[in-house]
From TrEMBL:
InterPro entries: Acnase/IPM_dHydase_lsu_aba_1/3 (IPR015931), Acoase/IPM_deHydtase_lsu_aba (IPR001030), Aconitase_4Fe-4S_BS (IPR018136), Aconitase_4Fe-4S_dom (IPR036008), HAcnase/IPMdehydase_lsu_prok (IPR011826), Homoacnase/IPMdehydase_lsu (IPR006251), IPM_dehydratase_rel_enz (IPR050067), IPMI_cat (IPR033941). Catalyzes the isomerization between 2-isopropylmalate and 3-isopropylmalate, via the formation of 2-isopropylmaleate. Belongs to the aconitase/IPM isomerase family. LeuC type 2 subfamily. [4Fe-4S] cluster binds at C297, C357, C360. PROSITE patterns: ACONITASE_1 (PS00450), ACONITASE_2 (PS01244). Heterodimer of LeuC and LeuD. This is 3-isopropylmalate dehydratase large subunit. It catalyses: (2R,3S)-3-isopropylmalate = (2S)-2-isopropylmalate. It is an enzyme of class 4 (lyase). GO terms for molecular function: 3-isopropylmalate dehydratase activity; 4 iron, 4 sulfur cluster binding; metal ion binding. Keywords: 4Fe-4S, Amino-acid biosynthesis, Branched-chain amino acid biosynthesis, Iron, Iron-sulfur, Leucine biosynthesis, Lyase, Metal-binding. The keyword Transmembrane does not apply. It comes from Methanobrevibacter gottschalkii DSM 11977.
């Protein structure tokens, strides 16, 4: 019997049934590119001589990586993309005031269950949290999608993580996924669909599920997925008017590998330099920090800001530590403003910036210098990821980031 991924890709390729290992030509429901990867897609699109895009209503272009433009090169990239949007009447264009692409797509109703979504960004797997098959592709592949509306894909096998147990206080979805990546290794799910299931996942919010699916790529996953339930349907019907179809995995599938994980005794987890799978429990980490970054497509959502503000309220960021807070979207920014969260951050001594990717890619606001240490709520800590190759990046949850900003070293919230 088929897995969730096999069912979605069978539908997208017009076949009754496909199996892991098959090569299919899948029709694409949503294609996303942004200001950093988009210009190469546009260049390739022009080189192949395409005269028009296949469907202007299915292309989504948010500006998020270098916004506002921080150099002449990034300003030129913005010009290239704005001209492409105008020339082909792209309906879903979000300029510099919208937010991070992987927050914008579900927030603006572009993601519903059962779709095939591709993005010229490796963390496009985020959207599997809503029951879609969503994956990152190269910029030149995106040019072909723009022109033809389809793409060849190999149907993946599935690693299904059955996660059980109640999370302790101050332990979050970020800790769960860091723990899984630490156990599996950076190549532990290479070209596999990573399904997250079990009672722990059922109890998680959509935002938390996005955290898990976002980081599936960090263990080599082709996509991350959570089977739709009532929470999914409630979210989708609030944000989108698109039709959708729900698919679930048959547990007797021959391409399914079940992995049981009990998180009852999990403590906060830290990914240490310079690999995401170099994960340690926080009790084993003793590290002073220069900078804290709260934000990104992984942990820049309203729930993250609330968790951090609860800890920072009435406190101050340590004297020799700087803290950057960057909400993942304008909508989140406004809600945080209404709730007084941003006031808490500013009064604590943090710098609150407009929605964007920030220092996550090492190309914009808040990069670190040689020998500096960043504690980040983002998804990657590779050497040079957030600035100098001689710096160090540690990854944590939003709550750990807030507590650590107060202490000037990595500490658990309690």
């Amino acid at each position: 019997m088929p897995t969730m991924s096999e069912k979605i890709l069978a539908k997208a390729s017009g076949k009754e049934k496909v199996e892991a290992g098959d090569i299919v030509i899948a029709n694409i429901d949503v294609a996303m590119t942004h200001d950093l990867t988009g210009p190469l897609s546009v260049e390739s699109f022009e080189k192949i001589g395409a005269e028009n895009v296949w469907d202007a209503s299915k292309i989504v272009i948010p500006f998020d990586h270098q916004v506002p433009a921080d150099s002449i090169d990034s300003a030129n990239n913005h010009i290239i993309m704005r001209e492409f949007v105008k020339k082909y009447n792209i309906e879903n264009f979000y300029d510099v005031n919208a937010g991070v692409c992987h927050q914008i797509l579900p927030e603006k109703g572009h993601v519903v269950p059962g779709e095939v979504i591709v993005g010229a960004d490796s963390h496009t797997c985020t959207h599997g949290a809503l029951g879609a098959f969503s994956t990152g592709i190269g910029s030149t592949d995106m040019a072909m999608v723009f022109a033809e509306g389809n793409l060849w894909l190999k149907v993946p096998e599935t690693n299904r993580f059955n996660i059980t147990g109640d999370l302790k206080e101050n332990v979050y979805a970020k800790d769960v996924i860091l723990h899984i990546i630490g156990e599996m290794g950076a190549d532990g799910s290479t070209y596999k669909a990573c399904e997250f299931a079990g009672e722990t996942i059922s109890n998680m919010s959509i935002s938390d599920r996005m955290v898990l699916c976002n980081m599936a790529i960090e263990m080599g996953g082709k996509t991350g997925l959570v089977e739709p339930d009532k929470k999914t349907i409630d979210y989708v019907e609030k944000h989108s008017n698109k039709p959708y179809e729900i698919f679930k995995t048959d547990l007797d599938s021959s391409s399914l590998n079940m992995i049981d994980i009990d998180v009852s005794n999990l403590e906060p987890q830290i990914a240490c330099p310079h690999n995401v799978d170099n994960v340690k429990p926080i009790s084993e980490v003793d590290q002073e920090i220069d900078q804290v970054f709260l934000g990104s497509c992984t942990n820049g959502r309203l729930s993250d800001l609330r968790d951090a503000a609860k800890i920072l309220k009435g406190k101050k960021v340590a004297k020799d530590t700087r803290m950057l807070v960057i909400p993942a979207s304008q909508e989140i920014y406004l809600k945080a403003l209404d709730e007084g969260l941003l006031k808490i951050f500013v009064e604590a001594g943090a710098l609150v910036s407009a929605p964007c990717c920030g220092p996550c890619l090492g190309g914009h606001t808040g990069i670190i210098g040689p020998d500096e240490v960043s504690l980040s709520t983002s998804n990657r800590n590779f050497r040079g990821r957030q600035g100098s190759p001689d710096g160090k990046v540690f990854l944590s949850s939003a709550a750990v980031a807030a507590a650590s900003a107060i202490e000037g070293k990595i500490v658990s919230p309690e």
